[in-house]
């Protein structure tokens, strides 16, 4: 199974379904569509042949690709589409470091089980904790995960390029040991 990608736009047949997949996320659709017109962002619908399976939103700066969103249709999760989506992202950005954020696993969180499942999924697919965290707002803590090929200082510089405008709104925290290939 390999996935095909198509750019997301308002007249796409699955547009409403895509909106539902990302409705609770941080940015409104109009903003994502607007930024996707740039040469550094990709808003992509994912298909298995002609069957819509999910959506991803990527931001790339030089050799770093940040997976801002990856959502698979709930009716077909656990059928290998998430893994295939990650493989598709990596094949479209060969040589790039692929990073993403996952919410910190806090037992008191309303979506605790979902957070645990996400961490398991990304770990199973080669992502490791970079020892970097950031705090968004006053209380939303995220871990930064990567398919890592460089130590944290290089990753931190790349991450700051991707989120230059947002760095004054977040606090980066380094915990634990940096990832490396060794």
Q: Describe the sheet with the most strands.
A: 8 strands, mixed
Q: On the 0-100 scale, what is the average pLDDT? A: 77
User: What is the fold-level CATH name, i.e. the topology of the largest domain?
Assistant: Aminopeptidase
Order of helices and strands: EHHEEEHEHEEHE
What's the CATH class of the largest domain, please? Answer: Alpha Beta
Using only C-alpha atoms, the radius of gyration works out to 16 Å
CATH superfamily of the largest domain: Gcn5-related N-acetyltransferase (GNAT)
- Total beta strands: 8
Catalogue the unreliable spans: 149-154, 164-182
Tally of alpha and pi helices: 5
Pfam families: Acetyltransf_7
Domain N-acetyltransferase: 3-148
Keywords: Transferase
GO molecular function, one term: acyltransferase activity, transferring groups other than amino-acyl groups
């Amino acid at each position: 199974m390999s996935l095909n990608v198509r750019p997301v736009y308002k007249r796409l047949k699955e547009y409403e379904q895509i909106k539902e997949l990302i409705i609770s996320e941080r940015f409104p659709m109009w903003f994502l569509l607007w930024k996707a017109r740039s040469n550094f962002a990709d808003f992509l619908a994912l298909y298995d042949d002609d069957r819509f399976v999910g959506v991803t939103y990527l931001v790339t700066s030089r050799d770093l690709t940040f997976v801002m969103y990856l959502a698979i249709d709930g009716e077909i999760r656990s059928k290998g589409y998430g893994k295939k989506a990650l493989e598709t992202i990596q094949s479209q950005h060969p040589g790039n470091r692929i990073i993403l954020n996952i919410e910190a696993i806090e037992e008191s969180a309303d979506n605790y089980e979902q957070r645990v499942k996400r961490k398991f999924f990304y770990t199973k697919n080669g992502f490791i904790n970079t020892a970097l965290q950031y705090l968004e707002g006053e209380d939303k803590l995220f871990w930064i995960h990567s398919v890592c090929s460089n130590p944290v200082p290089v990753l931190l510089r790349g991450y700051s390029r991707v989120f230059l405008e947002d760095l004054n709104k977040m606090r980066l925290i380094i915990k634990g040991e940096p990832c490396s290939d060794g």
